[in-house]
Amino acid sequence: MAITDSAVRCLLLVGASTIRSLWSIQRNPSPVAFATSIRPMSVGQVSSDYDDPVPIGGVAMEWIKLGHVVFAAVWFGGAVYVEALMASAGRTKDPQIMGTVAMRVGKTNPRVFGVSGVLTLVFGVWLLLLDDSPWEFSDTFVSIGFLIAIIGIIAGIAFFSPQMKKIEEIVAERGPQDPEVASRGARIAMMAHIMTLLLLIAMAVMVIKPGL
């Protein structure tokens, strides 16, 4: 059965009157307030109330914030996982195992850390550029977070990727048991410790928000 325009308007009138009555009762729960709140509304009042678009700025901010948090968690969680993986391989004292793990980590790192790091930064900037954003680039926790994110991205491009490629070349030429594989792996592990600590600081700063 088709719903006519008049029926829709009647439903809107009833719904709007009910909402207004409940709101009045919540603010002033007296019989007089209830009696005065249930007077009928005109179609013009309903139209003026429903013509305005639903504000979506807050919804957009929540989704952008979710993207920022998810990719930051992937970045930090991936760093912790690699730390555990490399530590486990190092305890074996077996150069072949250490070289194999380093090669696998080297192939995975750019895809996980590179993408998650860049997207964390992108979503963070996007959050700050929103008109209703409560944060600014000048906020202390924002500056610290951006600095650490940029350091992490630069370290991945300038240090981790070249070192991993060099290890792959050495393994291909001399095998994973070559001593240089272990020495380069140790340097990568040391730098990874520093980056994991910096990411932990960034996560803590984002939660605590010093300066606000």
Number of helices: 7
- Outline the low-pLDDT stretches: 32-56
| Run of helices and strands | HHHHHHH
Q: Judging from the principal axes of the Cα atoms, what is the shape?
A: elongated
Mean pLDDT: 75
- Into which percent range does the helicity of residues fall? over 70%
Largest sheet: none
Number of domains: 2
Care to count the β-strands? 0
Tell me the structural class: mainly alpha
What is the oligomeric state here?
Answer: single chain
Distance between the termini: 57 Å
Percent in strands: under 5%
Rg value: 29 Å
Would you summarize the structure shown here?
This protein is mainly alpha-helical and 212 residues long.
Architecture blueprint of SSEs:
Layout: H1 5-27, H2 31-37, H3 43-51, H4 57-91, H5 95-129, H6 140-174, H7 179-208
Protein described:
This protein has helices at residues 5-27, 31-37, 43-51, 57-91, 95-129, 140-174, 179-208. With 212 residues, the chain is mostly helical. Helix 5 (95-129) packs parallel to helix 7. It starts with a helix and ends with a helix.
Which terms summarize this structure?
212 residues; mainly alpha; 2 domains
